[in-house]
Write a structure and sequence with these properties.
The complex is a heterodimer. Chain A has no helices and 11 strands. Chain A is mainly β. In chain A, the strands form 2 sheets. In chain A, strands 2, 4, 5, 9, 10 and 11 form a 6-stranded mixed β-sheet that branches. Chain B is an all-beta fold. In chain B, the strands form 2 sheets. In chain B, strands 2, 4, 5, 6, 9, 10 and 11 form a 7-stranded mixed β-sheet that branches. Chain B has no helices and 11 strands. Classes of the chains: A mainly beta, B mainly beta.
Chain lengths: ~110, ~110
């Protein structure tokens, strides 16, 4: 069974204090790893897709990296508007099959001014 | 802008009274998904459509049904809502099956009285 574990569950940072969120996964045949941001009462907002170990993607203050066992979401000099829950999800399975996303439970990030 | 739209954003229903939630998309994606997300939990896939082909998850209760009359629209029907069905319902789309990014709508918050 595919498993995704995110840590920490909650993280409080001061504005400008860089940190990393972790997503470790156990799947049979990773097809893709996805990072989403979710604000309270809203749907997940897509951030990044990573397909293979060694891949990195960046967007503004966020950088996502992928190894064979885990992914990191690095947040550089965060601002209060970066406060949200960050969800990691994996998709695994044979080519062409519509496989569901397996989500982690998320990391709730709070950035204090 | 191409997007996923959900209506209504908030829905209040009574115990046992059928309710229908709506999702539309302007992305022209082949796959549409319905997720249930309870407070502080990861989204849980209920079912998905690949074009007109309906795919139900094994643990989705029979109380939940779905219709996709055309490419753009998909509906979630809850035949007899119970108190445990109160949740955020998320619609998502992806271009195709396989390792495709899923794009989420804003969600419908369902309250069962």
């Amino acid at each position: 069974e595919d498993q995704v574990t995110q840590s920490p569950e909650a993280l409080r940072l001061q504005e400008g204090e860089s940190s990393s969120l972790n997503c470790s996964y156990t799947v049979s045949g990773l097809r893709g790893l996805f990072w989403y941001r979710q604000d309270p009462g809203k749907g997940p907002e897509f951030l990044f897709t990573l397909y293979s170990a060694g891949e990195e993607k960046e967007k503004e203050r966020l950088k996502a990296t992928l190894t064979k066992k885990e992914s990191f979401l690095h947040i550089t000099a965060p601002k209060p508007e970066d406060s949200a829950t960050y969800l990691c999800a994996v998709q695994a399975g044979s080519s062409g099959s519509a496989r569901q996303l397996t989500f982690g439970s998320g990391t709730q990030l709070t950035v204090l001014p | 802008d191409a997007m996923v739209i959900q209506n209504p954003r908030y829905q209040v229903t009574q115990f046992g009274k059928p309710v229908t939630l709506s999702c539309s998309q302007t992305l022209n994606h082949n796959v549409m998904y319905w997720y249930q997300q309870k407070s502080s939990q990861a989204p849980k896939l209920l079912f998905h459509y690949y074009d007109k082909d309906f795919n139900n998850e094994a643990d989705t209760p029979d109380n939940f049904q779905s219709r996709r009359p055309n490419t753009s629209f998909c509906f979630l029907d809850i035949r007899s809502p119970g108190l445990g069905d109160a949740a955020m319902y998320l619609c998502a789309t992806s271009r195709d099956r396989g390792a495709e990014t899923q794009y989420f709508g804003p969600g419908t918050r369902l309250l069962v009285l």
